[in-house]
């Protein structure tokens, strides 16, 4: 097990009530993905520096680096297994790796012909990892065997993937969205074209597994239900946009929606963008609950802990402006926000 330093780096003073807490010893390069353990306040973070870091978050928000393991290329996705004993990660080295929290050992568990953009754990009776790659395939892995148990051909490169069993949604290049019922994982249940006009950046399944949200590079989010009978509830809305000036309100600056995270208790959700802002939304009331502008620089990835009391977000370059946008002095920060009920609770429905 690799520790971050010879002495633990902690921040033990309780935080000011309104201030977000900065995680100590963040990655030195862009942060691509983060995920909380499903059983404890441990945070796994993947970075373009080829490493996955694991942090312990204390009661007052103090953090401590606990372990770190590496890939042979940038890490693009991280997740946990159901019981919180394993961390899974995929990267630009075309490999997925598994880190055992109890032993501190990591091993390769999956291989593609192109970078693995997404890894997700599937909660079934069997220990199954699903990987989505830029090689235009989706693979299912039983971690007890070296070869994939199934491979599904995708219409294009996998850009984003999410699972809330039995629903799995995959977003690819060219705006294809493929919907799977994981009780029949080898067959696509439904294929649609994204309701948004520009490149898909993220898909995120509803906690009830009856629909999903889509975010795109054009600063827009779509709410989509799986069943046709619920299609009247589908809608899209603009976000992560700024007016160029008070006199040019019809010429907005448009930013990518980088991540969408659903609250595990209330079912509300967050969006974050290249504009450096975060919004909390209530999809049923079709309203924004909160907006905050926490730090200069894009926000590439976010996540709630298992109880919905902590919201983690990264501040780092998201490559939305390509290589030329990677200027010196770009921040790389991990931040923790203490969630208040009035920020994340659904609005009461008005009587008709």
Provide a brief overview of the structure.
This is Poly(A)+ RNA export protein. This protein is mainly β.
Task: Name a few traits of the molecule.
single chain; 352 residues; mainly beta; Methylamine Dehydrogenase, Chain H; four-stranded antiparallel beta sheet; 1 helix; 30 strands; globular; disordered N terminus
What share of residues are in beta strands? over 45%
Largest sheet: 4 strands, antiparallel
Helix % is under 10%
**Name of the level-1 CATH class:** Mainly Beta
CATH topology: Methylamine Dehydrogenase, Chain H
Give the class from helix and strand content and strand pairing. Answer: mainly beta
Account of the 3D structure:
With 352 residues, the protein is mainly beta. The protein has a single domain, classed as Methylamine Dehydrogenase, Chain H (7 Propeller). It is 1% helix and 48% strand. The chain is built from 1 helix and 30 strands. Strands 1-30-29-28 form a 4-stranded antiparallel beta sheet, with no helix packed on it. Strand 4 and strand 5 form a beta hairpin. It is globular, with a radius of gyration of 19 Å. The termini are far apart. The N terminus is likely disordered.
Chart the SSEs and their pairings.
Blueprint: E1 21-22, E2 31-36, E3 42-47, E4 51-57, E5 63-70, E6 75-80, E7 86-91, E8 95-100, E9 106-111, E10 116-123, E11 127-133, E12 137-142, E13 150-153, E14 158-164, E15 167-172, E16 176-181, E17 188-193, E18 200-205, E19 211-216, E20 220-225, E21 235-238, E22 241-243, E23 252-254, E24 257-262, E25 269-273, E26 278-282, E27 287-292, E28 302-304, E29 310-315, E30 333-338, H1 341-344
Antiparallel strand pairs: 1-30, 2-3, 3-4, 4-5, 6-7, 7-8, 8-9, 10-11, 11-12, 12-13, 14-15, 15-16, 16-17, 18-19, 19-20, 20-21, 22-23, 24-25, 25-26, 26-27, 28-29, 29-30
């Amino acid at each position: 097990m690799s520790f971050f330093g010879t002495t633990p780096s902690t921040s033990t003073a309780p935080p000011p009530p309104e201030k977000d807490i900065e995680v100590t010893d963040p990655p030195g390069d862009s942060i691509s993905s983060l995920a909380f353990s499903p059983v404890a306040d441990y945070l796994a973070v993947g970075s373009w520096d080829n490493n996955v870091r694991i942090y312990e978050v204390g009661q007052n928000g103090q953090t401590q680096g606990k372990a770190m393991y590496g890939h042979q290329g940038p890490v693009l996705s991280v997740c946990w297994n159901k019981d919180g004993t394993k961390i899974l990660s995929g990267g630009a080295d075309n490999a997925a790796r598994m880190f055992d929290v109890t032993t501190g050992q990591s091993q390769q568990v999956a291989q593609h012909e192109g970078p693995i953009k997404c890894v997700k754990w599937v909660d079934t009776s069997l220990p199954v990892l699903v990987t989505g790659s830029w090689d235009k395939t989706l693979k299912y892995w039983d971690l007890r065997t070296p070869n994939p148990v199934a491979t599904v051909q995708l219409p294009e490169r996998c850009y984003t993937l999410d699972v809330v069993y039995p629903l799995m949604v995959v977003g690819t290049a060219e705006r294809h969205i493929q919907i799977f019922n994981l009780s029949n994982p080898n067959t696509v249940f439904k294929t649609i074209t994204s309701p948004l006009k520009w490149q898909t950046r993220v898909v995120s399944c509803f906690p009830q597994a009856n629909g999903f949200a889509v975010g795109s590079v054009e600063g827009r989010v779509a709410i989509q239900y799986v069943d046709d009978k619920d299609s009247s509830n589908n809608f899209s809305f603009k976000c992560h946009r700024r007016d160029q000036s008070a006199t040019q309100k019809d010429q907005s600056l448009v930013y990518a929606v980088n991540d969408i995270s659903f609250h595990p208790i209330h079912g509300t959700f967050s969006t974050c963008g290249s504009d450096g802002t975060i919004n909390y939304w209530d999809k049923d009331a079709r309203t924004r609950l909160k907006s905050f502008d926490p730090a200069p620089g894009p926000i590439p990835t976010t996540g709630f802990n298992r109880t919905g009391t902590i919201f983690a977000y990264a501040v780092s370059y998201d490559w939305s402006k390509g290589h030329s946008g990677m200027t010196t002095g770009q921040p790389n920060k991990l931040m923790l926000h203490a969630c208040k009920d009035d920020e994340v609770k659904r609005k009461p429905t008005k009587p008709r």
